[in-house]
Amino acid sequence: MLQEVFDAYSFVFEEELLEEISEVGILKEFKENEMIIAIGDSVSSMPLLLSGAIKILREDQDGDELLLYFLERGDTCAMTLSCCLGHAKSEIRAVAEMPTKLIMIPIEKMEEWISKYKSWRDFVFESYHSRLSEMLDTIDTIAFLNMDERLLKYLRDKAKINQNELVQTTHQQIAYDLHTSRVVISRLLKKLELKGTIALNRNSIEVIDL
Amino acid sequence: MLQEVFDAYSFVFEEELLEEISEVGILKEFKENEMIIAIGDSVSSMPLLLSGAIKILREDQDGDELLLYFLERGDTCAMTLSCCLGHAKSEIRAVAEMPTKLIMIPIEKMEEWISKYKSWRDFVFESYHSRLSEMLDTIDTIAFLNMDERLLKYLRDKAKINQNELVQTTHQQIAYDLHTSRVVISRLLKKLELKGTIALNRNSIEVIDL
DNA sequence: CCTATACAGTAACATTGGTTACACATTGAA
DNA sequence: TTCAATGTGTAACCAATGTTACTGTATAGG
Fold it and tell me: Where in the numbering of this chain does the Cyclic nucleotide-binding domain appear (chains A, B) (predicted)?
C-alpha cells in the first residue's frame, strides 16, 4: 500500500507522514457506480484518492440531485473534511465514477497531523481552496449558463475525467446530474449532433469538437 | 481598537492573540454600499468583521452578478482567506451592506498564527467550513428553488441581517442580486403582496409573514 | 414650483425549459 | 425465440422566466 500512497502523494508529503498514512490508513476499493457515501451518513474518516474518480452530488429533500464536481487522484473531499472537523453528517453523496481506490484516514489522525506536519496542513488548506473554487465554478455554471452550455461543459468534463472522448452514459443519467429531464437532454444532444459537435450512439456520446 | 476586537472575538481567541491582532491589524470603516473589494483586486490581507455586514457577489464576464451570501460580525471571508494563502486575486466582489467596521490582518501574520495559535487555526477551519456551507446553500437555492421562493428567501435573509422587517432597497437592486430582471421582481413582489406576505412601498418592502 | 430622474406597475410577447404521450429500437433474460 | 425492460426520438403542449414598451408617480435639485 505504501507504494501506491507514495505514487499518488509523494510530491506533497514528507516520507515520515507517508509512512504514518500507510500505517493507519485503511485501503478501500469501489466498483464503478458504487455509492461511497450517502447524505446523512456520519463521517468518521477522511478519504485520500489513490486512483479512479469520484462524482460528488447534492440532493434536495425531494431526492432531486445535482452534480457538484469530480474528484481525482491526489484529491481529498474537503466537504468530508469539513464534516470531520465538525463531527457532523455528510451533506453530499459520493459515487465512484470508475473503479476507484482510496485510503481512509481516521479523524483523530487527521487532526493530529495538522499540528504535526506542515505539509499536511498545507494539503488540507489547499483542498479547501480547490473545493471553494470548484463550488464557485458550479455556481457560475448553474447561474450564468443555459442548459445547452451546461450540457457541453458536462460532456467535456466527463471526457476529461475519463481521458476518453467517448462518454459512456445515458441521457437519463445526464438529466439526473444536471437536474433536468431526459427529454430536454435528448433534445439538446440532438441539436449538438446536428451542429457536428458530438456523435450520438446508444449508451455513449462521442465528443468531437472540443 | 482592542476593545472592539475583544467584543467581537473574545469568545474565540486567547488574550495574547487578541493583543497581537490589535497591534498589527489595520482598522477600516466603510459606508453603506461602499465597495470593499473588486474582482481581480490582489489580496494582501484578511478581513475580520467587527460590526456591520458585507454582501459577497460573484460576477460573470458580462458583468452579470449574483449574490452569494452575507458576512456578519465575527465572520471572516474564507474566499479572501483562500486567495491569501494562494497569493491570488479576488474572485468575488464585496460591498458593505451597512456601515461596517473591519480589521485587516496582513497575510504573513495570518500564516504565522496558524502555527502559533490553536484558536486561530480552529477559527480559520471554522471559517472554511461556514463558507462551504453557505456555498452549498447558495447552490441549493439557485438549483432547486423557483424565482418566487428565491425572492422570499432573499427578503428574509436581508431582514435578518438588518434586524428589521423593513427591507430598504429597490426592485432593480434585488434583480441584480438574484441575477434576473426588474420586471420579473416587480411581478413576483406584487404576487407576494396580494398573498399578504409582504407590503410594498417605494424604496422599501415590509416582510409581514415570516 | 418645475422638471429630470429614478422607481414601480403592467401588458404583450418571446424564449427556455419541463411535461406528457407515444413510437420504435436494442438488449438481456426466460 | 419471445418478451420485458431500457434507451432514444419527437411532437405537442405548458409553465416559468426574460424582454420590450409604455404608463404614472415620487423625489431631489435647481
Answer: 13-76
